[in-house]
Amino acid sequence: MVSEKAEVVVFIPHPDDAEIGFGGTAARWIREGKNIIYVLCTNGDKGTSDPEIKPEQLAKIREEEQLAAAKILGIREVIFLRHPDQGLEDTSEFRKELVRVIRRYQPETVVTVDPYRPYISHRDHRITGRVVLDAVFPYARDLYAYPDLIEEGLQPHKVKEVLLWSSDGPNYCSDITDTFDLKLAALFCHKSQIGHDNPERKERMRERASAQAEGEEFELAEAFYRIEISR
Fold first, then answer.
1. Disulfide engineering: 167 pairs with which of 81, 114, 154, 197, CB 3.0-4.6 Å?
2. Which helix (H) or strand (E) holds 77?
3. CATH C-level class of 8-228
4. pLDDT tens, 93-113?
């Protein structure tokens, strides 16, 4: 397999998570010329309280919504792993899937959800974040981790940095002042989750982005915990 480089790979627990945590930054980075790949870990088939919608129908709807959101932002490619919602586990098999993607695209930056929020958080978020961090270091880096990937032509790769959204202790703010409207447009593609265009939700999102930009020279931000990897 020939590697297909992309500067950024984003690992996402459920459809809509990336737009909430990273959508404005994704749009800005794409404007700046970066290639970004989305990797959806689950199909989101549990994300409804409507008994008339069956899981397999919801999974199809949410996949279409994610593709529409990605198109608005300019995401180069969306990879669907299609694990069942609420079904992720910290296994060697799941980790290998993520290592395969990292080695294939050789990103400088990996983005995912912070797995270390205390107390109540979605289990798929915790599992995704933890397995992504393990995949980045040391598994994607080490020659003899998953040696059969070498046989596929996927050489070890060292990621330079990781950004974690939804962190309780962010140390990095990304300016989304000029891409906030694109973030909202992409987010509202997920109609099965948030309904149609909602002025009140838009205002709450703006207030949150403004709060995350506190102390910065720009108006609106997304906040992350940034990890630089030197080994």
1. 114
2. strand 77-83
3. alpha beta
4. 999 999 999 999 999 999 999
